[in-house]
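Encode chain A's predicted structure.
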Amino acid sequence: MPLDTDQLLEMYRLMVTIRSFTERAAEESQSGNIPAPIQAHGGEEASAVGVCAALRREDRITGTHRSLGHCIAKGMDIRSMMAELFGRSNGCCRGKGGGMHLADFSVGMIGANGIVGGGLPIATGAALAAQMEGKGQVAVAFFGDGASNEGTFHSSLNLASIWKLPIIYVCENNGWAIGVRASYALSVEDVSVRAVSYDMPGVTVDGTDVLAVYEAMELAVARARAGDGPSLIECKTYRRYVNPGPVSDSRFEPPEDVAGGNLQDPVAHFRARLIQQAVADAEALEAIKREVQVSVEEAVDYAKAGAVPNPQDALTHVFAP
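Encoded structure for chain A:
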């Protein structure tokens, strides 16, 4: 389905928000205000936004340890997200989750996960619930190239295929596991080829092209909603920063890739495309960027104004009633 001007500009706004939010949070982390390293999502904005643009609010997703972008793309409030990073009681998880465990069930974000491959079976369970509820919902599991080597990946895809669950498995392959090339640990060049073992469609797309991601996702979502089962989408992207990641000292664009022109900034690419196709001019896009920066600063102020959680509340909102 073609996207209209408002939808395209909203995608751009979300991508800029992810970039601005993660860089600003990284600054606060290095200043000591956020008590943990930031798992920056720079370089992977297009995969998060392209996937979530094809979803409904009630669809459910799970994320990884690097899920700030997933949360923003799915519609989470950046103020409550920033407060959670600061460990404050006005955070989305009341300061108990931190950056690796953000969640907001009201928008379908059922949890980021600090365990490699940990979100895959959770999303598969959400897909089973969606199938049983019969309301046309789908589930999405975001995971990295390293998680495709975990048992949770294989058991989840196998079960989803057997039961034709409405789920899309999205691999964000940024090519690296900390400082080790993904090719060192992967038996295949493309994670998507592993789909054939589980009798489901598998496709590799340019994960720095938000519209390419969206188009692949739209097909997979339609298949899932029609009851035809799961799909595997691999987004080839890259990790722009090392944790915690501000531009000044933590860039992680491999020298050989930069020299070869292999890395494409998703935000800059989409901005140029919008201008070229006369969707918006440079001034309008710059205005969006300024608005986003103001909202991110407001999120930082909101976080700093929040109270530190009371130790007596350590076990509240932990167990289901």
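The beta strands are 60-62, 139-144, 167-173, 176-177, 180-181, 202-206, 231-236.
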